[in-house]
Records
---
Amino acid sequence: MEKLIKIIDKSIDSYMDIDGVYQAKIFEAMRYSLFTGGKRLRPIFMIKTYEIFSKDINNVLPFATAIEMIHTYSLIHDDLPSMDNDQFRRGKPTNHMVYGEAMSILAGDGLLNLAFEIMSKSIEYDNEDNGEYKRKIRAIQEISKNSGVQGMIGGQVVDLLGNHENMNRDKLKFMYKAKTAGLFQASVVAGAILGGAKEEEIEILRNFSLDLGLLYQIQDDLMDAEEDRKINKLTFLTYYGVEHTELKVLELTKKVFDSLDQLKNRNIDSLKEVTKLLVKREK
Amino acid sequence: MEKLIKIIDKSIDSYMDIDGVYQAKIFEAMRYSLFTGGKRLRPIFMIKTYEIFSKDINNVLPFATAIEMIHTYSLIHDDLPSMDNDQFRRGKPTNHMVYGEAMSILAGDGLLNLAFEIMSKSIEYDNEDNGEYKRKIRAIQEISKNSGVQGMIGGQVVDLLGNHENMNRDKLKFMYKAKTAGLFQASVVAGAILGGAKEEEIEILRNFSLDLGLLYQIQDDLMDAEEDRKINKLTFLTYYGVEHTELKVLELTKKVFDSLDQLKNRNIDSLKEVTKLLVKREK
């Protein structure tokens, strides 16, 4: 796992190494947030899924790098004063505390744009067979949908406008599915597509990733319970109460591993292992 | 021209028509800025360039729509309080004045993401010949580079950090090339690529679009001279003075039409016509 994180970090770093250019400051700002202790969960899940079906990691690495950039941009923008107004993340000052609001907005924009730049540039249309770049295009389509207004951003909007009065079950479900689970889904499904999984395997992994994303967010709610109560934040926990929430965690945990077990003809040991680590995580 | 603008507007509108979803507010906010009197210059130049080489406008329309979304997101974010703090644009309240800062940030993010979603989705890899989707991939690569940290966003960073003390000729040149000319270049070059232009034609049109973008921005400076002086804004005009700037306008105007005349074996009447309109524009 440490070896894999090093490979991911090196890949991210390779796009940030632009010294001497006039706009060097934005690279500094982007790099700052890319390297403040992120766990690289999304790229790890993408690569581990990919490796079930294919071996050459170079085909998935640009996409794994891109998904971490998309995740990072969303955190930078989320932390802004007009959004969550967070001054610290992972124990360090947030991007806008260090670089100012304007640069933070641009750094977020820059990372989102760079993600698509990296993914599209990874397609070398003259040196690849048909199947190879079809898979890459499909992966970009999958990621863009899940990170956009129908996915992560859509979930953030509902989160932004939501309160205890205007929320309902379906809306809350959409918010959770879109917001956190969106990028988990994008990561796992893109990994499966790029690896060359069969259609039915892709759908199994889609269900797996959605449940995993939900589980991850609900665990977060349980860990942040006290703080969320203070700021009157609407979460799955505050909406349904602790008993129902803990039952949901058990249910999702079961579903996650049941999904994996449906891929019985494949070697899923490694993906199962990282899933176990995620499910049992401590704060 | 009016007919073409209607086609572009209809295409933009087709992506905004999502009633009844939980995140409807962001579609409202995106639509607000997409339809506040933009001149659709970038899509028009993309389509007019495309039409020199190909006739079926449906292949270029998603890209023309995407470039207008990228342009619009950049205006929404530019206008934010921590950036230019503009309260009005084209005589109407800016996005954040209507929808608040948080929603404006998300609306900008949403439009940037949607642009790449639309472009990548336009590739129907099962129904197109090889050349068709190669061209589309290359167009995405061209647009993403010019809208990103090496292009428009990079130029915005230099603009944000620049002042009369720390500026120099090369830096100013980079800023102008990247900021406004970046998206003009992306529009024209993507149009040429999608249309199937030859490599040497693409390069002629690249030079044309860069000069045109510079010209457009410098004309803006001349028109906004009084206001820029008030806020002590650094522009080509305030850096070089009015005489040098007016000479530059003449020089660029000549270069723009000289470039077009190099495409002598093609019918460039229509592109020349919109170029003339742009060059002679009044505020």
Note: Residues 53 and 195 of chain A are 5 Å apart (CA to CA).
---
Amino acid sequence: MDTSPLARPFPAMPPIEGAVPRVARARYKTWDRCDLTYVELAEGTSVAGVFTRNVCCSSEVELGREQVKLGRARALVVNAGNSNAFTGYRGREAVEQIMAQVAAHLGCEPSDVFVSSTGVIGVPLPKDKAQEGVANALAAEPCTWEAVAETIGTTDTFAKGATASAMIGGTRIEISAVIKGSGMIAPDMATMLGYIFTDANVSPAFLQQCLSAANEATFSCITVDSDTSTSDTVLAFATGKAGNEELTGPDSPGADAFAAAIHDVCRQLSQLVVRDGEGAQKFIEIAVSGAVSDESARRVGLAIANSPLVKTAIAGEDANWGRVVMAVGKAGEPADRDKLSIGFGGVWAAKNGLPLADYDEAPVAAHLKGQDIRMDVDLGLGDGTATVWTCDLTHGYISINADYRT
Amino acid sequence: MDTSPLARPFPAMPPIEGAVPRVARARYKTWDRCDLTYVELAEGTSVAGVFTRNVCCSSEVELGREQVKLGRARALVVNAGNSNAFTGYRGREAVEQIMAQVAAHLGCEPSDVFVSSTGVIGVPLPKDKAQEGVANALAAEPCTWEAVAETIGTTDTFAKGATASAMIGGTRIEISAVIKGSGMIAPDMATMLGYIFTDANVSPAFLQQCLSAANEATFSCITVDSDTSTSDTVLAFATGKAGNEELTGPDSPGADAFAAAIHDVCRQLSQLVVRDGEGAQKFIEIAVSGAVSDESARRVGLAIANSPLVKTAIAGEDANWGRVVMAVGKAGEPADRDKLSIGFGGVWAAKNGLPLADYDEAPVAAHLKGQDIRMDVDLGLGDGTATVWTCDLTHGYISINADYRT
């Protein structure tokens, strides 16, 4: 696969004290690359997670949901090339084997070991390959975050990472995070796996609160093709090694700065996934205002972002606001045709339900020729706002998903 | 546009006594074809209708909803080439002008005149062209149903009609129906307009009951691209000229036969729209069973039918049941991964959450090479069933919707 035209270079990412990454070969597929990631986490590491809402989720997701409730983590293992989804008890046994193997090595509880898998579905993760891959990883030299980003990827066309820092009561804390998602050649699902590592000292409950809040405005506001993976997972690990006074809630000194840094990293990660969307040629930001609530604005935004007719119009560099009207109307949210305004690149094309008489299409046409597209939709009903991100729908998407076979 | 490979020939359609169609040129676009349809209906004609749920609907839909409540119709006018949607008060004035012009000609109430429009949106229907077009139609010779099907079409690649008959207490009644939808070259919305004419003597209330019931299992069970038009309309007109004893409810003699005939025609029409789906190369029937209710089964079926990953897999002739699992799981309906079974062309690929060990892919591969694809999905939870219809997602869809401009 060619690298996405919307790719971003991998950022300089600081090491996180208490989080040591390693990669190795499990050879889940007939490829010569690392495909198993192992991150050892210091004792006392807090963990938080958000998971797919797909009810046909993988064993990894089912187990992860339960493990997160305990709040503590000692290790993360990520398998690439096999999602282990829809594999019943055999798939679950393979996950439990990995948890036991790492727990024996670290002298911790199996429930302290988090496992994710991504790749083809319906094939139980082979236990022998997993065992050998984990053994290789445990013995490997520590590696960079960029190597982690490359190893968790499957059909991604570029490695994706984000970083941020914050000051908490005079202590500087660092956040390094990686994600994989979209861009595929084997016909798998557009699985998204994201991992956030920080040396901040944070209670599990407040870490979860920060991650859940950021998730609502970032990962829950992106879409490539409206299809929800069975394996989507974002985990946040806080080792506490920065030595700041523990953040236990929104009133702790420095809590706002930490929450903002987590939000910033989640926003960066989520947008990188869109930038690697299958076949994407354009990155689209849709800002919805005037909705009856923020949640209503988000739903309207996603209805627009998921509309094949809107996405193909942007691919064709066509300011087809009629299709936007259609998408608003089908969203199932309060909307009034005669109060609706729509603009592209900061220029209104229609206001209050009518095309603008003096609408100047030239600047809009120029904007649509670019790679970064901005769409404004005002519903004229209330104060609800949301911004969502998507990519266009192109021949590349069809080629990736229809022209190859499992 | 080339004719869809899934096209069906236009059937022999009987004239309906009391319903006289005419077509004429209004020249809504710079084309040399009839684009205005006028059907005169006998006094006492019953009417029923179902309309789009898109809240940004056109004035035609808003007015139609109110007119149907009165239960009587004397005329139908259909404009092709301009949907008159998102055109505010100016669009509404154009519709009211048409209603007044026809009402004056027939000596009836304006509310007896039903108007539909389909085509580009955001441009008010030009009143002068509408007036001349209606005048031309009122003076034209009666025409065939096939001419009506051609005239209401915009980007359709073939004319679509369906017919049925029924015996009501010794009287034979006829139904002739036409529809337009999908297949486009100008980037409009995939608007669906359907018209059913019968000489049966039916009360408006029972006609509505039959149409609404059929709609749930036919028009509400098809999807091409998940985008809901602002103008979707299906109207049924019953002239009463067959002279049968009036059908007033499900207990009237012959009511079952009539309801079945209406259902049959709606099923034919809805499937013809899918067969002209934009870029369609394959017609897909998805039968869902074992859901907690019929409505739940329908929602699961539509989640599968709307999944870009499922639709591209079928385009690629790939029995990718993993994508079906994903689509079931994201539908938001009760489902249990470990009770789910999936099959193609009558062959089960996975049962009770596990791939079948003795799964023979050869007959499935042969089935997927054909034009008519059958998918079975059993949720293993209850007695709910539904069948939905869709088409595959191909490069043709992208070409039609992205490679052309408004």
Note: Confidence is low (pLDDT under 50) at residues 183-190 of chain B.
